[in-house]
Amino acid sequence: LIVTTPAGTKVVTVLPDQAVANILAANVISRLGPSSLTQVASVSGVIQLAQQNNIPVYEIAGIKQFNLLGFIPVSQPVTAIVSAETGELLNTQQSLPTRIVDLFSP
Fold first, then answer.
1. CB of 89 closer than 8 Å to CB of 22
2. What are phi and psi of 97, to 5 degrees?
3. Helix ranges restricted to H, the chain
4. How confident is the prediction along the chain (106 residues), in pLDDT tens digits per residue?
5. Going by DSSP bridges, is the β-strand pair 55-68/47-52 parallel, antiparallel, or unpaired?
6. According to the model, what pLDDT value does residue 54 have?
7. What number of H helices and E strands is found in the chain?
8. Distances from the Cα of 52 to the Cαs of 5, 7, 41, 91, in angstroms?
């Protein structure tokens, strides 16, 4: 699959479903979508094809399930940035409260 960007033509070798399967398997997110993703018919609002440092990436919005102090279940939003060329996880974007919950979760 070839994508034309402002920086030129890029080859996308990883499809969105493969990227999602990889981050779910790596436990980066627990499930897709924002917490209000109960009635969305498609994933177009959850997975976005973007460009970061001249690399095509997928921005995948998800929910991560934490166990605060080991026993209190807490769900927090997380956005995973996955390379569309290699399928590698490049970054995760979390809010400050999510990072704090992550520190206190085993």
1. yes
2. -60, -35
3. 16-25, 96-103
4. 888 877 788 889 999 989 999 999 999 999 987 654 454 445 567 889 899 988 899 999 999 999 988 888 999 999 999 999 999 999 999 999 989 988 888 8
5. antiparallel
6. 86
7. 2, 7
8. 11, 11, 28, 11
Query: Closest Cα partner for 106 from 70, 57, 53?
Result: 70
Confirm if 11 and 87 have CB atoms less than 8 A apart: no
Tokens of 33: 């979508």
Residue found under tokens 């997110």 = 29
Give CA separation, 93 vs 60, 76, 80, in Å.
10, 11, 6
The dihedral formed by the CA atoms of 36, 38, 43 and 48, expressed in degrees to the nearest 10: 10
Instruction: Answer whether 32's CB lies under 8 Å from 77's CB.
Output: no
How far is 44 from 61, CA to CA, in rounded Å?
Answer: 11
**Could you read off the pLDDT of 67-85 as tens digits, one per residue?**
988 888 999 999 999 999 9
